[in-house]
Amino acid sequence: MDILASGHEQVVFCSDRESGLRAVIAIHSTALGPALGGTRFFPYPTEEAAVADALALSRAMSYKNSLAGLDLGGGKGVIIGDPKVHKTEALLRAYGRFVEALGGRYLTACDVGTYNADLDVVGRETRFAHGRSLAVGGCGDSSVLTAFGVFQGMRAAAQHRWGSPSLAGRTVAVAGVGKVGSWLVDSLVEDGASVVVTDVDAAAVERVLALHPGVQAVADTAELVRTPHDVYSPCALGGALDDETVAVLPAEVVCGGANNQLAHDGTAQALADRGILYAPDYLVNAGGVVQVEDERHGFSFARAEAKAATIRDVALQVFAAADAEGVSPAVAADRLAEERMRSVGRLSTIRLPATR
Question: Does the record's keyword annotation contain NAD (predicted)?
Answer without folding.
Answer: yes
